[in-house]
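Q: I have two molecules that I believe assemble together. Could you output C-alpha cells for the complex as a whole instead of separate predictions?
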Amino acid sequence: MYVYNDYDQQLVNDRVEQFREQTQRYLAGELEESEFLPLRLQNGLYVQRHAPMLRIAIPYGMLSSLQLRKLADIADEYDRSYGHFSTRQNIQLNWPELERVPDILAELATVQMHAIQTSGNCIRNTTTDQFAGVLADEIVDPRPYCELIRQWSTFHPEFAFLPRKFKIAVNSAESTDRAATRVHDIGVQIIRNNAGELGYRIYAGGGLGRTPVIGQVVSEFVPEKHLLTYLEAIVRVYNQHGRRDNKFKARIKILVRAMGIEKFREKVEAEWAHLKDNDSTLTGNEIKRMQAHFSEPDYADLPATDPAVEQLKADSKGFRNWLERNATAHRVPGYTAITLSLKKTGVAPGDITSKQMRAAADLAERYSFGETRVSHFQNLILADVRVSDLPALWEEAKANGFATPNIGTLTDIICCPGGDFCSLANAKSIPIAEQIQRQFDDLDYVYDLGNLDLNISGCMNACGHHHVGNIGILGVDKKGAEFYQISLGGDSGLDASLGKILGPSFNAEEVPSVIEKIINVYVKERTEEEEFIDTVRRIGIQPFKEQVYA
Amino acid sequence: MPELIVNREVVADTFSYLTVEDAVPATGDVIVPLAVWQDQADSLLARGGRTGVWLASDQLAEDLDERVHQADVVAIEFPKFVDGRGFSTAYLLRNRLNYQGELRAIGDILLDQLFYLQRVGFNAFLLPDGKPAAKGLELLEPISVRYQASTDTPSPLFRQLESA
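A: Yes, here they are, computed for all two components at once.
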C-alpha cells in the first residue's frame, strides 16, 4: 500500500499543528462558531446529537495492521472503545471531545493517517473497489490512480469552498462496478480503447441525497496521463457555475442537469483545452512511482485447492456457507479474498470494537500480508488469504464475531448511523436493520434468496445509499413521528438504477413484515436463477405494491 | 478600520470602493464595479489617481478584456466566505488573462483562507473589520507542502521532485 515520503509526512504534521491552533482560537473565542465550522468540517469534525463525531480518512479503504491497532488505541483512549465504518470507506468515532481532537490527529499522523477533507464542501476521500488488485476481472489496479487523485485534491487551494461536497470514485473492473461510480459527482471508469491504450471514461453528475441521479458520460476516453487536468477542468467549471443560492441544489448533478450534458461537456472540453499537456499532466515516472507502492505481495506458488479444506467443506455446512458467501475468487491460484462481516445481528452495521480492530490486525498479519480493506458495504476484507489457511482463519473469525456468513445477502445491510447518533437524521436506522436481521434469521432461506442489497438511510442525505439498494429504506418525519418509505429496484453496479418508491410509508414496527411480503412476491414470481433485482426489473413494482398494500 | 495586506505587508488603503450608483470623483484612487469599468475604462484611466475594478462573485474572469492590464488593482469580492467562486476567478485572471498587477480579495474572507487565496494568485487582502492583519500574516503559510500546481507553484510536487 502507499507509504508516505517526507513530504507526505510533513503535510499531515503541519495539518495537526494548524488544526491545534485553530481549535485553540475557537476555544479562546477568537473564532466564531460559523467561522470554525468549515475549518473543523474540513477536518472531519461534526457536532452531533451526543458529542462531536470525527470522521477519519481511509484512502480508498486501505488499512495496515499498524493503522488498525492505532485506531483501536485511539478508540480506547479518546472514545468508547469502538468505531463505525462508513459507506465511503472511512471510519467514524462517535464520542471524542472537541478539545482532544488535535491530539487524536497527532496520533493518526504517526501512522500516516489524517482526517483531511472527510467533510465540508471540498473534494472528499476517493473511493474504489475493495477488491482492487486481487480479482481477475480488472483492467489495472485502480489504487495508484486513487492515490494520484488523493494527492492532487489534498489542500487544493482553488477547490476547498465548492458549492457543495464533491465525491470521486474509481472503478477498474470490466464487467461490474463495486465502487458505485455512477452515483458519484465524478465517476472514473478505467478502460482500454480499441488501440489497447489505457485511459478513463469519465462520468459526472451522479449522486444520491435528496435528488438522486445517475451520472452521465462527459468523455468516452481521456488518455491515462491526462487524469488530473481533466478532473481540474470539471471541478473548475463546477466551482464557477454550480448553484450557491440553495444548498439542496448545489451539487454538480443539478448543474449538469440544468445545463444539459452537451453544454456541460462543451464547457469542460473548452477549459481542458487550456490545461491539456501542462505541467500537471502525469509523467510515466510518476505513474510508475505510484504503481510501485501497490506492487504484488510476495505470493507463493501454491496449488489451487487444499485437501484439508476440501474435507472440511464436505464435513461442515457452516464452513461451506462461510466460503459461499464470504470468499471471493482470487486471480492467483491458492489464494482467496475473505470478507470479515461486520453485519452480525444485534450489532449496528459497520460497527467494530477496539478488541475486534486488534483481532483484525492480528488476522491480517497472520493471513494476509498485514493489510485489510474497508468496503463501502461496511465490511472488512482480507484480500490475500492462502486457501490452506481458511480453516484456521474461519475459527478465528468466528471467535471474534467476524464470521457471519451473509455477505451480499439480505442481512448484509448497508446502514447509516441514523437518529441514534446523527443530528441530521429524521429517523433511526440501526434498530430497523436489527429488526430485519431478526426477521430473516433462517440462514438457508436467506441464501436461497441469493444476492440482495438492502440499504437504509435515516434521512434523505442518503448516507445509507437507499436509492441504489435493491430494497431501499428511507427514514422520514411525519408530523414528528418516525416513518419509513420503501423503494424497490435500485442498483449501484454497471447497470446502475434508482429505486422506485413503493407507496405510502410505514411505521417502524411494520417494516419487517413489509420486507417479508416483498420477499414473498419475489419468491413466487422469480424464474430459475433470477436474482431479486432481475425479477423487479422484469415484473415492475406493481405486483409488490399489490401485496404490500393489500 | 479594515486592515489591508499587500505583498505580505500591512499598508494603508488609499482606494475608495465605488458602487454603480456612486459618481466617480475627479481625483483619488478608486475601485469601480465591472459595469463601470467596461463602460468607461478609458476615461477612468485618463483621470488623476489610480484605478481598479472589482468583480462580484458571479462575475467571471472572462468578463474582462485586454484593458485589465492597465488597471492598478483587480479586486474580487467574497460575499460570504463559503462562496469559493473567487478562487477560480483569481486563478483564471492570473493564468488565462496573464494579469500581473495587484489582485485583491475583498469582502467576507477568513484569516484561515489567506493561504489558499495566496496560492491561487491573490497578493492583497482587505481584511474584514475586527480581523487583525498581524494574525493574518502569521497564518499565510500553515502548510509547507504543496502537492498540486496553482498560480504560486506552476509545477506540481511530482514534477519538482523528478527534475530535482
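A: One point stands out. The CA atoms of residues 44 and 123 of chain B lie 23 Å apart.
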